[in-house]
Amino acid sequence: MANKIVWDKTGERFYETGVDRGVLYVQDDQGKYPKGVAWNGLTGVTESPTGAEPNPLYADNIKYLNLFSVEEFEANIEAYTYPEEFEECDGSAELTPGVTLGQQPRKTFGLCYRTKLGNDLEGEDYGYKLHLIYGAKAAPSDKGYETINDTPDAITFSWDVTTTPVPVTGFKPTALLVVDSTKVDPEKLAALEEILYGSEEEVVNEETVPGVDARLPLPDEVLTIIQGLDLTWDEADMT
Fold this sequence. Notes:
Largest sheet: 8 strands, antiparallel
Number of strands: 16
Helix content: 10-25%
Radius of gyration: 22 Å
Distance between the termini: 45 Å
Oligomer: single chain
Strand content: 35-45%
Order of helices and strands: EEEEEEEEEEEEEEHEEHH
Structural class: mainly beta
């Protein structure tokens, strides 16, 4: 049966806002993201896809084809501060404890952050999205220092980020994965967040369950988790 379109129905006035729960994952020599650390003071992430530009071809006096360039994913990160582990991603190295030098090789990193989903009934408690960024490299950025005056403000750091996509089985490689809490089983989402944020040691049925470090799973492992399949850390290393 056909239905007439109705606009702005109660409960369907959606919006997205905010950014929080930033986590930095520095890539290791095997291309994995094994240990995440909290990124406090994160104020904004601007996702900026580029490319996918049309290149029209003409034949027989008509537009014959429209070919598109490869799409790239770029971003801009803004924050009041950054984790110490980000220094090696920003071209810094420790010369000796307490002394750093710049213009060094920049390490690749991954990033996870959360945005809030809201609607007209539940407000910002409606849900959230997890944004996972892979293969990121930070470009050199300006750092402006000003004297303290009668209207003091904290310094805001900003980095332009380019990415290298990672493989995804059955799809083109990607540098961005988004998980919507309103569309994913809560238990599977909790399992994914335990990996992204880590866990502490706890006692379950009188047995001690060790805690695990936060890490950034690659897209194929995320899919496996959301689909509810078992995947060990060793198996994830083999993907």
